Amino acid sequence: MPTPTIYVDADACPVKEEVYKVARRTGCPVFVVANGAMRVPPDVTFVSVADGADVADDWIAERVKPGDIVVTNDIPLADRALKAGGA
Questions:
Q1: How would you write the chain as a 3-class SS string?
Q2: In sequence order, what are the residues at sequence separation of 6 or more whose Cβ sits closer than 8 angstroms to the Cβ of residue 83?
Q3: How many Å apart are CA 39 and CA 52, to the nearest integer?
Q4: Separation CA 10–CA 55 (nearest Å)
Q5: How many Å apart are CA 56 and CA 19, to the nearest integer?
Q6: Is 22 exposed, middle or buried (0-12, 13-18, 19+ CB in 10 A)?
Q7: Which of 37, 44, 64, 78 is deepest in the core (most CB within 10 A)?
Q8: pLDDT recorded at residue 39
Q9: What distance in Å separates the CA atoms of residue 49 and residue 26, rounded to the nearest whole number?
Q10: Which of 45, 49, 42, 39 is nearest to 7 (CA)?
Q11: Average pLDDT over the chain, rounded to an integer
Q12: How far apart are CA 34 and CA 82, in angstroms?
């Protein structure tokens, strides 16, 4: 089974540090997606998307595959991730 990718909807995500710890322990790649600048550790990929409603959500939803993990407080994004086979 391939290693899952972790996607973090970074807007107001209170558990980023915990995600980074788990990802390091398991070897999962992490993408932190936001509309503005944000500092992330060197082993994490930061993706800056254009301003606008749901732009970060769309970026994540277009990439999530079965087995991937999406960390979000956004119910519509969570629904899209689950429908794509993510967790």
A1: CCCCCEEEECCCCCCHHHHHHHHHHHCCCEEEEECCCCCCCCCCEEEECCCCCCHHHHHHHHHCCCCCEEECCCHHHHHHHHHCCCC
A2: none
A3: 20
A4: 12
A5: 18
A6: middle
A7: 64
A8: 93
A9: 27
A10: 45
A11: 94
A12: 20
- The answer to whether 12 and 73 have CB atoms below 8 angstroms apart is yes
Best CA proximity match to 8, nearest among 83, 26, 28? 28
Residue 10: pLDDT above 80? yes
User: Rounded to an integer, what distance in angstroms lies between the CA atom of residue 29 and that of residue 52?
Assistant: 26
- What the block records as the tokens of 46 is 């930061």
Question: Cβ contacts of residue 45 below 8 Å, gap of 6+?
Answer: 29, 30, 31, 32
Residue 15 in tokens: 């558990």
